[in-house]
Specification:
By secondary structure, this protein is an alpha+beta fold. It contains 20 helices and 29 strands. The N and C termini lie far apart (108 Å).
Length: 709
């Protein structure tokens, strides 16, 4: 005994043989007069096999018109052909033949399995007729084994396992008038039980009503029909019945009978159902694995814990839940964030509305409170209908959103890392049973991965904030100057939490000059930051003493190489000096391996300060004789200094970036302040700092346009 969807069915004796032989398509049906040996009735398919023949027609003529051949390829209009044997009253328990196709589109022949027997126990006039059914073959090899082996027992099995029925459409309700013994073996109903009744008595509450309707519609339209139905035997047990019903017509084309061919295909349906279950299990397993991979990939690349928590619900729907929510906590463990996503885009607005609800109100349940507190560390499957879920919410639109999205059960998954719960993920089931052990294990795995990723993002945020605080503490406060407008910025790299070696400085020198410096120490760690702080302090001391820029960098290089203060650093030091009456200003500068500063002149011209270039600080190499240069700085001119992180990218070399910077500066609005010019440059090259691959400093010193010439 086997079980089909909760219904018991008996395995048919020939169930393993029959499905491998015949196709799931209508058969050619003939009724042969035993007295005359003529075909007197035929269905549509039989007429198509022998086109141009009228009824009645002799067996040889019909065989010739159909082009019947035996397994060896010999014509079958004469000799001991199966149709001639049936016409003589001899049963044919199964024999393979081929017929010409009724189309010029192909030369392929139609393979048929012939079953025939006299209807000796049928009511008149069927009692003097024989039924011939020619079934289209599915697998030629299986038939060849039956034919070549000459195993009459299995051939008889194939024939006898087919239930044949004949009904009379001219009588009320199209009742059965004859059934063969196989019908009784399959259904448990005897001929006396069923003759005079419509065969719908085989149906039950679980029978597909749409399939039944398709059969009724085909019979009304005199069309053949094939369906697989869940039917019930006389003892109430269920079986899957493949029903093929063919209308049979007389010589004038009038409908005379309905011939039904029925076979128990329970084994085949069971195998297909098992295959579908296996495929569905594999699909669900793949969906779970894809969801896990998606969560890991999406969250591991996010360094913002709030953003990571916000996208998490959208990563798990619809594979693990119909809709999902995530509740985050602050440092005290109190609910602080609420995010919602639905697997159906049509519900996106409801999810958005619900996400605006106060997280404290949604964290009302004792189960959720236990998870957030860390008292419970395993997922909780919680039955919760929509009214319970919507009850604590403050706004009616939030309650309506929950009702619209639905809820019958929610699985609450703690997101844990390093011994504490940082958030809870809610996976909502709208219909169906509780998640099984595999589903719960997958959900718990999501909690582990997401919890670790979110906690890593929190750790990064803390470390990055501390590093940035340290970095900024090493940078100077800009002085307020009478004749100059100064603005600067430091932007950390978009990745990594380390401090860097970029720095800038502005000195209001005691001799009335203005010292401007910018530099970059190789590295992104505390050692680089420490070296940066030392270089800045040494440069300040040399600059404060009044040394010229070339001398400042020479002395700085000697000290660095002598004491091993830094491995490698680039630097620009410029001194802006004006006449005592302020009528003339000049910029004297020196560069140690650093990109050239830009001097934006009134009117938009840009001058690159690319003279006086020496090797980087700390590099023992010959120096050029010219170690400083001078350019005038008229009123309204702006000196722009920067580190290479502003311009250099993997897809853009530094030289190209320098050219683009000169172009951007030349197009700056006339009269830009130092801060406006700084912001223009930063916005153009850093996208607000989001795509920086390296730390960056920008320093702008602009001479007042009102200064005397």
């Amino acid at each position: 005994m086997t079980d089909i969807d909760g219904l018991t069915a008996v395995q048919p004796f020939a169930g393993a043989v029959l499905p491998s032989v015949v196709r799931d398509t209508p058969a050619a049906v003939l009724l042969v007069d035993l007295d005359e040996g003529d075909v007197v009735f035929a269905n549509h398919l039989a007429r198509q096999l022998a086109p141009g023949t009228g009824l009645p027609v002799g067996i040889p003529e019909w065989s010739r018109a159909a082009g019947l051949r035996d397994a060896t390829g010999e014509d079958m209009e004469d000799g001991p052909a199966p149709l001639r044997r049936v016409a003589s009253g001899e049963p044919v328990t199964g024999e393979a033949v081929t017929a010409e196709r009724g189309s010029d589109a192909t030369s392929a022949r139609e393979a048929l399995w012939v079953v025939g027997f006299p209807l000796t126990d049928a009511p008149p006039p069927l009692a003097r007729q024989a039924l011939v059914v020619m079934l289209p073959l599915r697998e030629q090899e299986a038939v060849a084994e039956l034919q070549d082996g000459g195993d009459l027992r299995y051939r008889a099995v194939v024939a006898s396992d087919l239930s044949f029925t004949i009904s009379d459409p001219h009588r009320e309700d199209d009742p059965l008038v004859w059934v063969n013994p196989a019908f009784t073996r399959t259904t448990g109903y005897t001929s006396e039980d069923v003759v005079g009744r419509n065969c719908r008595f085989l149906q039950g509450p679980a029978t597909d009503r749409e399939a039944v309707a398709r059969i009724s519609r085909a019979l009304r339209e005199d069309e053949p029909v094939t369906e697989v139905l869940l039917n019930f035997r006389a003892d109430g047990t269920a079986f899957w019945n493949e029903v093929v019903i063919s209308p049979v017509f007389d010589a004038d084309g009038r409908l005379t009978h309905h011939v039904g061919v029925q076979s128990d295909v329970t084994a085949r349906v069971e195998a297909a159902a098992e295959r579908d279950r296996a495929l569905e299990a594999a699909r669900r397993a793949n969906a779970r694995l894809e969801a896990l991979a998606r969560v890991s990939s999406a969250l591991s690349s996010r360094l913002d814990s709030h953003e990571a928590l916000a996208v998490l619900p959208g990563l798990v729907v619809p594979d693990l839940a119909v809709w999902a929510f995530a509740i985050g906590t602050d440092d005290t463990g109190r609910p602080s964030a609420f995010h919602v996503a639905h697997g159906d885009p049509a519900m996106a607005e409801h999810a958005r509305v619900l996400a605006t609800e106060d997280a404290h109100r949604y964290a009302h349940g004792p189960q959720l409170a236990e998870l957030l507190s860390g008292a419970v560390t395993d997922p909780i499957s919680w039955e919760l209908d929509v009214d319970e879920a919507a009850g604590p919410l403050e706004r009616e639109e939030s309650r309506e959103a929950v009702r619209a999205m639905g809820m019958t059960r929610v699985v609450l998954v703690p997101l844990r890392a390093r011994g504490r719960t940082t958030a809870v993920l809610g996976l909502v089931v709208v219909d169906g049973s509780a998640p099984g052990p595999t589903d719960l294990a997958t959900m718990a795995d999501v909690g582990v991965r997401a919890g670790l990723a979110i906690d890593n993002a929190r750790l990064y945020e803390r470390e990055h904030a501390a590093a940035l605080t340290l970095q900024r503490s090493l940078l100077p406060d800009l002085p307020e100057l009478d004749d100059f407008d100064v603005a600067a910025t430091y932007l950390p790299a978009a990745v990594g939490a380390e401090v860097g070696g970029d720095w800038y400085d502005v000195l209001d020198l005691p001799d009335g000059g203005l010292g401007v410096a910018i530099g970059d120490v190789m590295g992104h760690d505390l050692q680089a930051a420490a070296a940066m702080g030392q270089l800045r302090s040494v440069l300040r001391s040399y600059a404060w003493s009044g040394d010229e820029p070339g001398a400042v960098l020479r002395r700085l290089d000697l000290l660095v190489r002598g004491l091993g203060m830094a491995g490698l650093a680039t630097c620009v030091y410029a001194r802006v000096a004006c006449a005592e009456d302020g009528s003339r200003c000049a910029v004297t500068y020196a560069k140690a391996g650093h990109p050239p500063p830009m001097l934006l002149l009134p009117g938009g011209a840009v001058e690159r300060l690319d003279q006086a270039l020496t090797t980087p600080i700390g590099v023992a190499a010959p120096r050029t004789l010219v170690d400083q240069a001078e350019v005038p700085m008229p009123p309204g001119a702006a000196l722009v200094l920067y580190t290479d992180g502003l311009l250099e990218r993997r897809d853009r070399p530094l030289r190209q970036g320098i050219d683009e910077l000169a172009q951007v500066l030349s197009q700056a609005p006339e009269g830009c302040s130092a801060a406006a010019l700084r912001d223009l440059v930063v916005a153009r090259f850093t996208d607000g700092g989001l795509d920086l691959e390296d730390d960056t400093c920008v320093l702008v010193v602009r001479r007042s346009p009102d200064a005397p010439e």
